[in-house]
Amino acid sequence: MTALEKLLAKQALNLADAVDLLENREEWQNEVFSAAQAEREAQFGNRVYIRGLIEISCYCVNDCYYCGLRRSNPNAKRYRLSQEEILHQAALGNKLGIRTFVLQGGEDPYFTDDRLSELVKTLKALYPDTAITLSMGERSAASYKMLREAGADRYLLRHESADQNHYALLHPEGMSAIYRQSCLRELKALGYQTGAGMMVGSPGQKIEHLAQDLLFLQDLQPEMVGIGPYIHAQDTPFAERSDGDVDLTLYILALVRLLLPIALIPATTALTTLDESARMRALITSANVLMPNLTPPNHRADYAIYADKKAVDLESVEGLADLKAQLSLHGLSIDMSRGDTKRRRDV
After folding, report:
1. Is 30 a domain residue?
2. H/E/C letters for each residue in 259-310?
3. Residue 1 belongs to a domain
4. Cβ–Cβ < 8 Å for 24, 264
5. Fewer CB within 10 Å, N or C, the chain?
6. d(Cα 269, Cα 309) in Å, to the nearest integer?
7. Smallest Cα–Cα separation from 227: which of 244, 203, 206?
8. Residues of the domain holding 146
9. Strands across the sheet with 47-50, in order?
10. What does the alpha-carbon distance between residue 183 and residue 113 come to, in Å, rounded to a whole number?
11. Cα separation of 166 and 164, whole Å?
12. What is the domain-level CATH number for residue 128?
């Protein structure tokens, strides 16, 4: 049985299988894309779930080599939203019908457990039918527990690389793949709908690394998977490195749809940044989530995790009507509900 046959039969993959799937992309991609689209339609119909993304801070204590928000970037334009500003943006999103807010930021010490918990509690009190997703990096087990008890429903924390050596190439000393993975397992244990993922084409990445990423996702069984192409950022050690391959990213998204049929998979802004057609290609074949930007317009360009990030037009909440029209041309429709994973509908 080939690796593709095992994947289509929903059998567990080993490392050799994952490598085969990646190395035989040209031969198998048409079948993979077709199968992924059929799986997406079987699980979710034509629905594309909408999340309102609020980028609450671009301060970060970390110095990750690929990220424009790294603490040693002297040219980063920093901002931090107040609770009042965040609540204002949430109110705008709620009026638009958005029922999931994603609060994303660097690892900013200002957002202590108490501050972040109070923010989550306030949002849940104001909008009890709305899911709250946090993407605030590595925190302690006690912190994750406190935030969960405050009402946070989901947590996004991309594992970035399942290979320890490759992870170390991307991050400074003191950060480790083992700890990042332990955070994800802690989140799962606490009952969060948990999101992992990685960049495709990051510096030093090999086929074997991507294969290990697929196996890690298979083992973790995250409810959400965020994957986008690597895009260089100015004022970082990797500023001159080439960007990732959009077509390879789309292929990996399709593999993940087959590997994790009920996962919530966004068509990321990074895809659109490199290729404006890529978002729709991802949604047709595998993805089922979009996260239009609900950050205050005057700060959207400041959250510069990579170069030339798209945060306007169809990538913003102001473009929802046009986005709906574009999706309908491809037989897709916006779903403004919470959009929980099938095994977490009770959350």
Report:
1. yes
2. HCCCCECECCHHHHHHCCCHHHHHHHHCCCEECCECCCHHHHHHCCCCCCCC
3. no
4. no
5. N
6. 7
7. 244
8. 11-344
9. 289-290, 47-50, 333-335
10. 16
11. 6
12. 3.20.20.70
Number of domains in the chain: 1
pLDDT by 10s per residue, the chain, length 347: 999 999 999 999 999 999 999 999 999 999 999 999 999 999 999 999 999 999 999 999 999 999 999 999 999 999 999 999 999 999 999 999 999 999 999 999 999 999 999 999 999 999 999 999 999 999 999 999 999 999 999 999 999 999 999 999 999 999 999 999 999 999 999 999 999 999 999 999 999 999 999 999 999 999 999 999 999 999 999 999 999 999 999 999 999 999 999 999 999 999 999 999 999 999 999 999 999 999 999 999 999 999 888 765 657 788 888 989 999 999 999 999 999 987 654 43
Place of tokens 């700890």: 179
Please identify which residue in the block is written with the tokens 């005057």. Answer: 298
Tell me how far apart the alpha carbons of residues 78 and 59 are, in angstroms, rounded to a whole number.
6
Residues 130 and 123 sit within 8 Å (Cβ to Cβ): yes
Distance of CA 166 to the CA centre of its chain: 20
Are the C-beta atoms of residues 162 and 216 closer than 8 Å to each other?
yes
Do residues 278 and 312 touch, judged by C-beta distance below 8 A? no
CA dist., res. 20 & res. 270, Å (int): 26
In total, the chain counts a number of residues equal to 347
Tokens of 66: 């690929």
Q: Establish if 5 belongs to a structural domain.
A: no
Q: Which residue has the tokens 């086929």?
A: 207
Domain annotation covers residue 4: no
- Strand, coil or helix: 62: coil
In degrees, rounded to 5, the angle at the alpha carbon of residue 96 between the alpha carbons of residues 91 and 101 is 60
Distance of alpha carbon 264 from alpha carbon 239, whole angstroms: 31
Asked if 130 and 121 count as a contact pair (C-beta separation under 8 A), the reply is no
Distance CA 19, CA 6 (A): 13
Query: What is the rounded radius of gyration, in angstroms, for the C-alpha atoms of the chain?
Result: 19
pTM of the predicted structure, to 2 decimals? 0.96
